[in-house]
From TrEMBL, chain A:
GO molecular function: formylglycine-generating oxidase activity
Protein name (record): SUMF1/EgtB/PvdO family nonheme iron enzyme
Superkingdom, natural source: Bacteria
UniProt cross-references to Pfam families, sorted A to Z: FGE-sulfatase
Taxonomic source organism: Frigidibacter albus
Positions of the Sulfatase-modifying factor enzyme-like domain: 31-264
UniProtKB/TrEMBL annotation, chain B:
UniProt cross-references to CDD domains, sorted A to Z: CuRO_1_CuNIR_like
Cofactors: Cu(2+); FAD; Cu(+)
The organism of origin for this protein: Frigidibacter albus
Protein's UniProt name: Copper-containing nitrite reductase
InterPro entries for the chain: Cu-oxidase-like_N, Cu-oxidase_2nd, Cupredoxin, NO2-reductase_Cu
Length: 267, 382
């Protein structure tokens, strides 16, 4: 017996089944990414480097960097909430406003989200390295080398130069949290990079020494309880900190907000 | 004109009335017109324009003339001010800044202040000078309604740094103070400051670090509440105030006001006088990497200064002064050494000091480097 009513019922059931299937599906739509082509990169490693006892700039290294797929936007509150709902990520404070980046993120939260997103999308997502972030930052990235004076024998010069540079880079910062897209895209097409949300990287803080001529790194050691966090300036933040505005060092300029974006590995 | 602001204020005053009645006898507004007149017409007069802190108007450290009448003007401004990135206060201010501007006179001078309460304000205000004698520090002679002004003259008889604050009666007193209405005055000895041996000392720069404790309420969403005017926020702030735990402890009115582009500056070899005022709550200034060479902890120059202090105590409701000569260049942090208040609640200032590093005073002998765990470090423990 096939009546229009039965057909309608079947159709309705099919729709409900379809909706349910969608809701239960393990798949999560992959976030929008920006492709950055392979190419050369001039990069100063992140950390503190010394020549003898003098603290100096890390040497500039030229590397051939592979292509990079990086999220166009910061991970949003809505995206992060799906991971929380799925019990993949710890719940965190949110603004509740649409399109806002998830902040109050520490390193473990970010890597938990990356693991969850990888499992749900079948691709490999991870935090960028400090070098990868700088590539994604394009013209908004910066070289953290100093002028000669700050590489000299007087440690106070470097200290003051660093303080003044952080103040200048941060500028008259707009300290309100804004929705995604507020800070626009850079020349690579990456949105909001080096706005007022600093981003976790997977790069550990390192202590290193340079060769006597200062052109190469002689020794280096990673200290992974502290990670490079990138934004208007590079900051080193202890991995469990979610709000670096307080809890920074006594005499520095801390990041404003802590958030993140991920990169997708090829393959 | 009956505005919404006036209506709100009416509600606040009603809520406050039991206190006003119980303490009315001490807060009666008085006048001095019946007392014997004093003739000061022979004294010279000088007008001084006040600067917003941390800066202090130009002044002589050693007086080159006899006593004078020093005329100051202050306008009371009620306005919303930002305390932190996510926090605002409906502030009440002396001359538009939190803290109010610092005045400097010499012992024996007469301070003559004209206090303006502009008509756009909502509340009564006054000023209580801890440096002054009688009439609740001038508070009873200066209670001005919106649209009124008053002129107070007092003789600066005691040398030292002193707090002034608004004290308009009852529960309005602490509320006005923790809404920003405090500042400092320095009464210098006519022959200037002296060290512990009585030898003259002077300073190249002076900074006024005014510390404020704020009690900002949070709404149901966890965000700091923002109000249309002070009256609207009164009851919520009162609830936080009465728990005595400040939401913010700041220098110069807001978190970070004296860091970054607002950082203080000095040069190696320069002597700086830091005047620290706190009208409501105890504090313990400390200069990280420096000292107080000479410290008038209680702020009164007839007492010998203490020497070489690491941290000094500022009693709530007082100001203190610390003299320090910077010996080493670098970035210094001037903090309230309750470090929770310094780092988490905001009480940090920075001083950028230029100069040449002195390895005799301090040297990094070995930069941080990994050590041989098997062979090194075994002799350290007992």
């Amino acid at each position: 017996m096939t009546t229009p009513a039965a057909l309608a019922l079947l159709l309705a059931l099919a729709v409900i089944a379809g909706v349910t299937a969608l809701r239960l599906a393990p798949g999560v739509e992959a976030p929008e990414t920006v492709h950055i082509a392979a190419g050369p990169q001039d990069y100063r490693p992140a950390g503190e480097f010394r020549q003898g006892t003098r603290m100096v700039d890390a040497p500039m290294e030229r590397v051939e960097a592979p292509a990079l797929e990086v999220m166009k936007f910061h991970v949003s509150e809505a995206e992060y909430a799906r991971c929380v709902a799925d019990r993949g990520c710890p719940p965190l404070p949110v603004t509740g406003r649409p399109g806002m980046p998830q902040t109050n993120i520490n390193h473990a939260d970010a890597t938990a989200y990356a693991a969850w997103l990888s499992a749900r999308t079948g691709a490999t997502w991870r935090l960028p390295t400090d070098a990868e972030w700088l590539r994604a930052a394009g013209e908004r990235g910066f070289d953290d080398g100093f002028a000669e004076d700050a590489n000299g024998a007087d440690p106070s010069r470097r200290w003051i130069a660093n303080y003044l540079r952080e103040v200048e880079l941060r500028g008259e910062a707009d300290l309100a949290l804004h929705p995604q897209g507020h800070f626009g895209v850079n020349d690579r097409g990456v949105a909001d990079i080096a706005g007022n949300v600093w981003e976790w990287t997977e790069t550990c803080f390192q202590n290193g020494t340079l060769t006597p001529d200062g052109t190469a790194i002689a020794t280096r050691a990673d200290y992974c309880g502290v990670r490079s966090v990138q934004g208007k300036h590079r900051a080193f933040v202890i991995d469990f900190i979610r709000d670096a505005r307080v809890g920074g060092c006594a005499a520095g300029v801390p990041p404003d907000y802590l958030g993140f974006r991920l990169v997708r590995d090829a393959g | 004109m009956f505005t919404r602001r006036a209506a709100l204020m009416g509600a606040a005053l009603v809520a406050a009335s039991p206190y006003l009645i119980t303490s009315a006898s001490a807060e009666e507004v008085m006048d001095t017109s019946g007392a014997a007149p004093v003739d000061l017409s022979s004294l010279p007069r000088r007008k001084v324009k006040l600067l917003a802190p941390p800066f202090v108007h130009e002044h002589e450290q050693v007086a080159t003339t006899g006593p004078a009448i020093i005329e100051f003007e202050m306008k009371i401004i009620e306005k919303e001010m930002q305390v932190d990135e996510d926090a605002w206060i409906q502030a009440m201010t002396f001359n538009g800044s939190v803290p109010g501007p610092m005045m400097v006179v010499h012992e024996g001078d007469y301070v003559e202040l004209t206090l303006f309460n502009p008509p756009e304000n909502m509340m009564q205000h006054n000023i209580d000078f801890h440096a002054a004698t009688g009439a609740l520090g001038g508070g009873s002679l200066t209670l001005v309604n919106p649209g009124e002004k008053a002129v107070l003259r007092f003789k600066a008889t005691r040398p030292g740094v002193f707090v002034y604050h608004c004290a308009p009666g009852g529960p309005m007193i602490p509320w006005h103070v923790v809404s920003g209405m405090s500042g400092a005055i320095m009464v210098l000895p006519r022959d200037g400051l002296k060290d512990h041996l009585g030898k003259p000392v002077s300073y190249d720069r002076i900074y006024h670090i005014g510390e404020n404790d704020f009690y900002l309420p949070r709404g149901p969403d966890g965000d700091y509440m923002r109000f249309a005017d002070a009256g609207e926020g009164y009851s919520d702030m009162l609830e936080v105030m009465n728990r005595l735990i400040p939401s913010h402890v700041v220098f110069n009115g807001r978190v970070g006001a004296l860091t970054g582009t607002g950082a203080l500056v000095a040069e190696q070899g320069e002597t700086v006088l830091f005047v620290h005022s706190q009208a409501n709550r105890d504090s313990r200034p400390h200069l990280i990497g420096g000292h107080g060479d000479l410290v008038w902890e209680s702020g009164k120059f007839n007492n010998l200064p203490e020497r070489d202090l690491e941290t000094w105590f500022i009693r709530g409701g007082s100001a203190g002064a610390a003299l320090y000569t910077f010996l080493q260049p670098g970035v210094y942090a001037y903090v309230n050494h309750n470090l929770i208040e310094a780092v988490n609640l905001g009480a940090t200032a920075h001083v950028i000091v230029g100069g040449d590093w002195n390895n005799d005073l301090m040297e990094q002998v070995v930069a941080p480097v990994e050590y041989d765990v098997l062979h090194e470090g075994r002799t350290a423990l007992p």
